[in-house]
Amino acid sequence: MITTLELRPLRSDIYISSIGTSLKFLSRSYANRSVRILRYPDDLYDRSPKKLSTETMSIKPESPERCKDGICFLQLVKTKKSTLPPLINAAEIFTVVEFPQSETNQDEVVAIKKIQIDYGLSRISWQGDPCVPKQFLWDGLNCNNTDSSIPPTITSLNLSSSGLTDIIAPAIQNLTNLQELDLSNNDLTGVVPEFLANMKSLLIINLSGNNLSGQLPQKLLQKKGLKLNTEGNDMLLCTKGSCNNEPEKGGRHLKKSIVVPVVASLASMIVIVTALIMFFVLKKKKSSKSKENGREAPRTSKKKRFTYEEVTEMTNNFERILGKGGFGMVYHGYVNGTEPVAVKIVSQASVHGHKQFKAEVDLLLRVHHKNLVSLVGYCDKGKELALVYEYMANGDLQELLSGKRGSSVLRWGTRLKIAIEAAQGLEYLHKGCRPPIVHRDVKTANILLDENFQAKLADFGLSRSFTNEGESHVSTVVAGTLGYLDPEYYRTNWLTEKSDVYSFGVVLLEIITNQRVIDQSRERPHIGEWVELMVAKGDIRNITDPSLKGDYHSDSVWKFVELAMACYNALPSNRPTMSQVVIELIECLTFENSRGGTSHDMDSKGSSEVTMTFDTEVNPTAR
Predict the structure, then answer these.
(1) Angle between the 578-593 and 412-427 helix axes, to the nearest 10 degrees?
(2) How far is CA 47 from the centre of its chain?
(3) Pick from 36, 390, 442, 483: most CB atoms within 10 A?
(4) How far apart are CA 595 and CA 550, in angstroms?
(5) Is 234 known to be catalytic?
(6) Reduced to 3 states, what is the DSSP secondary structure of residue 426?
(7) For position 357, what pLDDT does the model report?
(8) Which of 49, 69, 98 finishes a domain?
(9) Which of 555, 550, 480 is nearest to 517 (CA)?
(10) pTM higher than 0.70, yes or no?
């Protein structure tokens, strides 16, 4: 017997409709023997469905039944094995609505969806038709849909700061009417493709702030009327003129006339040879000194290398303590007297201090993401070791949830925002880095928040990279924090990306319950076991943080708990990937934002709603 039936929003492909049409809701009905008015508590508009009056109903399982001339024929037929008569609980009827505009050019639809797949983009608005209707235009796109009789095409694509990795997607060249392309501030690699020069409509290309390399195509530099920005790509080479072209009137490029005298060339050669000799001499001395000290120096980087005197000065002689970590104290300071920073001093008494220091420096020098704490610089003078990070004004998530940083309560929308951003940082370590990186110490204390409550993962001292990209696990000594440790990793010493997923599941449970991970006063001491017990009882109010006072969408909270328990699954193979976690969290946010008229502490711009099915059962046993 079915005791509860939950109806969620249906995908657009559930009901078959002809091209250029949509579905419009017509009516809502209920069917039972009661004559009382039915109400759904979570319905913002308190709608009361009418009682359905009909003698015969039929439902075809293969496809939805259409109505003709306003008459619908539906029939419910009892199966041979059924012991009860047919019963219908409710019915919803839709009608087909013709779109006044033409659909987006199909070649461009295929191209933009290929770009979405190639980059793993997940945004709330990226569903349905990219350009039609205008009010549901995909985020980051502009289209030339002024003439409703002509299929619109995409004229502008803005994927700036979207966490893009890998090469510039070849599918971009299939957007034949594209005029503006912005791929700035991502982590794109490889060469600048020549097909960009062959796109006739392209007027503006912004590739700044990436890791592109190789020779910039000469055809691109010579393309008339093109505005090109490639700043911040240090490995990118230009054979003639400037890499950053600004068009003049009439479509000409501003070209610098470069005159290089023979004398200057010879002088440059001498300087280069001298510099190379000094470099190798100093490198040899440094290598010898490192061996004498019994340790290897961190990899070179553009990040500033501070002296211990500079560290002392920036912290005003270690005046203000921010906190204490596993390997030393953390102090507040200023770089150049203006930029606030957090300075971690590695304790000389720490047995593993230098190993953790080197691991964190090496990782943060090569890994950059908006949801990972940035390294400003470091100091490794003798036994004096220090890490200088960007300052996170709102502390860590553990303090914020516990109320140590004030009496204000984190709203549910804000908690979802923090969870999504932390998940995106972890996803980048797993999927955006080559080879992948496992954090190994995911917990609420290592999720920091800046002045805008943007969440960033921190403390990479225990992180491990796979030796090769194709590896599924690495054997290592168990390390991490009690309560967050993956039991499978603890048992086998096999570290995988799913070990981080388990820890993140515990973090999600902390966010929803605001309870300690280990609490001996509870019926079940570990938070995961306790939530399992509460879910079995079917009452979500026993799980959620009482300080929320029910101010949340129930579907959002239930889905959040389901996801947390899927991550907490004892079998790594049954846990979702972090990419799936991000998508499911965004769907939780979509439910929460659908409440309407409710204040939310977040901006959902750039987010995405995508339905994802796990390979395992993620639902609680009771609902």
Answers:
(1) 160
(2) 36
(3) 442
(4) 13
(5) no
(6) helix
(7) 78
(8) 98
(9) 480
(10) no
Is 437 inside any structural domain? yes
Which residues are 141's β-sheet partners? 157
Same domain? 146 vs 10: no
Structure-token match 């201090």, residue found: 353
pLDDT at 214: 86
Structural domain including 33 reads 1-98
Q: Please indicate, yes or no, if residue 257 is contained in any of the structural domains.
A: no
Q: Are residues 478 and 370 in the same domain?
A: no
Task: Write phi, then psi, for 388 (nearest 5 degrees).
Answer: -110, 115
Same-domain pairing of 404 and 385: no
- Set 441, 459, 545, 555: catalytic member: 441
Cross-strand partners of 188: 166
163 close to 428: Cβ distance less than 8 angstroms: yes
Q: Which amino acid is at 383?
A: K
Per-10-residue mean pLDDT of the chain, 623 residues long, equals: 52 50 59 56 57 52 55 67 64 64 86 88 81 85 83 93 89 93 92 91 93 88 90 77 48 37 54 62 50 42 76 92 79 90 79 68 80 88 85 92 79 95 92 84 93 90 63 64 90 89 97 94 92 82 89 91 94 92 91 66 35 32 33
How many Å apart are CA 531 and CA 544, to the nearest integer? 10
Nearest Cα neighbor of 418 from 551, 566, 588, 543 is 588
Mark whether 488 and 538 lie in a shared domain: yes
Q: Which two tokens stand for residue 159?
A: 């994927």
Q: Is 8 helix (H, G, I), strand (E, B) or coil?
A: coil
Domain match, 12 and 90 both: yes
Tokens (6 digits) for 75: 């029939």
Q: Look at residue 69 and tell me if it is in a domain.
A: yes
- Sequence-distant (6+) residues with CB within 8 A of 386 are 306, 308, 311, 343, 344, 345, 346, 378, 379
Provide the CATH number for the domain around residue 544.
1.10.510.10
Q: Both 471 and 560 in a single domain?
A: yes
CA–CA dist 593, 562 (Å, integer) = 19
On whether 355 is known to bind a ligand per the annotation, the reply is no
How far apart CA 158 and CA 116 sit, in angstroms, is 12
> Is 573 found in the same domain as 483?
yes
Is residue 174 within 8 Å of 111, Cβ to Cβ?
Answer: yes
Say whether both 475 and 438 belong to one domain.
yes
Domain count, the chain: 5
Please check whether residue 535 lies inside any domain of the structure: yes
* Ordered DSSP codes for 264-328: HHHHHHHHHHHHHHHHHHHHHHHHHHHHHHTSPPPPP-SSEE--HHHHHHHTTTT--EEEEETTE
CA 149 to chain centre: 38
What is the reported pLDDT for 245? 53
Annotate 32-56 with DSSP letters as a single string: SS--SPP--TT-TT---PEEP--S-
Q: Which of 359, 374, 390 is the last residue of a domain?
A: 390
Query: How far is the C-alpha of 483 from the C-alpha of 527, rounded, in Å?
Result: 8
Q: What does the CA dihedral 7, 12, 16, 19 come to, rounded to 10 degrees? A: 160
